[in-house]
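Incident log, structure service

09:12 report received: a user says their structure output differs between two submissions of the same chain.
09:20 pulled the input from the user's history:
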Amino acid sequence: MGKRRSPGNKPPRDGDRRIGRRALLIGGAVAAAGTAVLARDELGRLWWRVPGVDKPRKEGEVDFAGARWVSASDANWRRADRPDDYGIDTVIIHVTQGSFESAVKVFQDPGHGAASHYIVRDDGHITQMIRELDVAFHAGNREYNERSVGIEHAGFVERASSFTDEMYEASARLTARICARYDIPVDRKHIIGHVEVPGTDHTDPGTHWDWDRYMRLVRQQEVQARQGVTAAT
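09:34 re-ran on a clean worker, output below:
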């Protein structure tokens, strides 16, 4: 979400639920299975991409421990199997330009056409609305949607008071964990604001967002997060 700026030339938006390149390639491979031998492990990983077959998922499952699950409308995201079909190399920071409650409401609205993976509240509470597996329509740029995880922060770009200590700390833990999970470098080339997405018409997180503080907090959490990922594998 966030505050809009003057419109200009924009890249394709991600609202058309197009079939990913990997899905097309898999379709071709399945069609050729009668005349070619496919590796057993490849078939084991790809069987669920066949039309009519869904990859098993647990209802209400979250990717970040402690987050609360509230599902976004399925009109505001596209089913995927990231990072296998689309590599994840970016975290995008947003500001809702409204309350936490209003952000949840619009992300559940099928007519809104957009939603982020997470929303962070001023008290540090984190709600997840879209699985990291899936492509959220949050960046206004299809390529960036496919390669990123979007994190909204409840508040207003023009109000420094929106960005509390609890919000910064909780968001930094979340971003550090995402970076550890997908081996994303913790730097400003890979952790960016919505305003930095090519073709965007938004200005968030705005001048009151303290990037130096935020990146310092993310780096402090990074080593611990990566150790946790290593221990879990």
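09:41 both user submissions now match this output. Likely a transient worker issue. Closing.
09:42 reviewer note: The chain has six helices and eight strands. The longest strand covers residues 90-95.
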